[in-house]
Structures are given as structure tokens and as C-alpha cells.
């Protein structure tokens, strides 16, 4: 719970070892989110404990502000429908995508 | 295809889906031919109405908990209400490609 966004994944952000984990990494990158990543391939106990803790059977797992958000499918969905931007805003993170959009709006107003 | 059949039967019985597709995506991964390790399920049911996405996924995970504990290693879920399904393009995109991390 030390970071606002925490990801449990296979591999590390620079070298994901699973397409689902990679999808999560790429989405967070697009939004410019800083996060803690834990590699479950390095630690079998962690891999089992996190599944039990969240009552969720698969990896990756995304936590925002200590709350379990879901896996890759859910994060992709939140990314597509704008919910992710809103959730990040709630914890004081302004998504890079939102910044880009606001910059566009400003320039079109002029 | 015992696992695929079992997934299909369980979801049909418990979620009475309007539409169900169970796709074995294992051939996209680094597993022996004929494996049943990676699945995508598309479920459209009225039982998802007024339920957030996380809860819908939990419903599917719970129904398939035996499979997930015994060999099924990746499960991608598309969970929609009949209305959402009608409004969607009904195109289900394939899961992301393997990155070689299977098994460790």
C-alpha cells in the first residue's frame, strides 16, 4: 500500500513476460502513471498470496489506492471508457491523456 | 476437449447466457499442441445487469475456480449484458500475444 498504484505482474515493466502483463504496463505508460511493480515470477509465495488476498485467480492484478481494481481485461475496459482517467483523478494523478486532451481544447478555443 | 466442454457447460448452467463463446487460445502460446491452458470466454447474460465489471468477472472466476486451479492458467473475460452486446460491434479482439513467460 505504499504507492498509490501497485501492479502484480509477470516480469518487470521494462520486460514483461506475459502479454496480459504487458498490456497493463502499456496502458499505465500511456497515462503517465508512476507505480510499484512486483514480479510474481520471482516469488512463488507472493504469487499465491496475492491471488488469495484479492480473491482473484490470475495475474496481472492492479491496485489503486489499496483497492483491487481488476486484471488486464478490466483495465483495458476502464482505459477505453474513460473510467481510468476518473479513478486516477480521485487519487490526485492527472493522466497524461487528459493533459493532452485539455491542451487540444485550449488550442481550439483560440 | 474436456476442459473447454466443462467451461461451456458450467457457464451455460449457471449464467443462462444469451450468447456464449469459449475460445481456446492455447495454440497462440508456448504450450504443447492440444493444450487447454489459455481461454477467452465471451458471456452475455441478463444476470450481469446492474453489476460492475469487477463483480461480473468474479462471478465467472468463481464458476470456473476448479478449472483455474487445475491447469487453466490464463482466462480472459468479456462480460456484457444483452443490451451492451447489442450496442457493441460484437467483435471480440484476440488476447495479447504470448511473451514466453508460460510456466515460469
Describe the structure in your own words:
The complex is a heterodimer of chains A (110) and B (104). Chain A is of the alpha+beta class. Helix content of chain A is 50%, strand content 19%. Chain A has a single domain, classed as 3-Layer(aba) Sandwich (Glutaredoxin), CATH 3.40.30. Chain A is built from five helices and six strands, in the order βββαβαββααα. Chain A has a four-stranded mixed beta sheet. In chain A, strands 2-3 form a two-stranded antiparallel sheet. In chain A, helix 1 runs parallel beside helix 3 (72-81). Chain A starts with a strand and ends with a helix. The mean pLDDT of chain A is 93. Chain B has 104 residues and is an alpha+beta fold. Chain B has helices at 2-15, 53-63, 65-69, 82-87, and strands at residues 19-24, 38-44, 74-80. In chain B, strands 1-2-3 form a three-stranded mixed beta sheet. The A-B interface holds A 10-11, 16-23, 41, 55-58, 68-74, 77 and B 53-54, 57-58, 61, 65, 68-69, 74-78, 95-102, 104.
Amino acid at each position: 500500500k505504499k504507492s498509490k498504484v501497485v501492479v502484480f505482474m509477470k516480469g518487470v515493466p521494462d520486460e514483461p513476460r506475459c502479454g496480459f502483463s504487458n498490456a497493463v504496463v502499456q496502458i499505465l505508460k500511456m497515462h503517465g502513471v508512476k507505480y510499484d511493480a512486483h514480479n510474481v515470477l520471482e516469488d512463488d509465495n507472493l504469487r499465491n498470496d496475492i491471488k488469495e488476498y484479492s480473491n482473484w485467480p490470475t495475474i496481472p492484478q492492479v491496485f489503486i489506492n489499496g483497492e483491487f481494481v481488476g486484471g488486464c481485461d478490466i483495465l483495458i475496459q476502464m482505459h477505453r471508457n474513460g473510467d481510468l482517467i476518473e479513478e486516477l483523478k480521485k487519487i490526485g494523478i492527472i493522466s497524461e491523456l487528459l493533459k493532452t486532451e485539455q491542451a487540444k481544447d485550449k488550442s481550439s478555443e483560440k | 476437449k474436456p476442459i473447454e466442454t466443462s467451461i461451456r457447460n458450467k457457464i451455460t448452467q449457471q449464467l443462462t447466457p444469451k450468447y456464449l463463446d469459449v475460445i481456446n487460445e492455447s495454440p497462440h502460446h508456448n504450450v504443447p499442441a492440444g493444450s487447454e491452458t489459455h481461454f477467452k470466454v465471451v458471456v452475455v447474460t441478463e444476470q450481469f445487469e446492474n453489476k460492475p465489471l469487477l463483480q461480473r468477472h468474479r462471478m465467472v472466476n468463481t464458476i470456473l475456480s476448479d478449472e483455474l486451479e487445475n491447469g487453466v492458467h490464463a482466462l480472459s473475460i468479456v462480460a456484457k449484458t444483452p443490451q451492451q452486446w447489442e450496442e457493441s460491434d460484437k467483435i471480440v479482439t484476440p488476447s495479447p500475444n504470448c511473451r514466453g513467460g508460460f510456466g515460469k
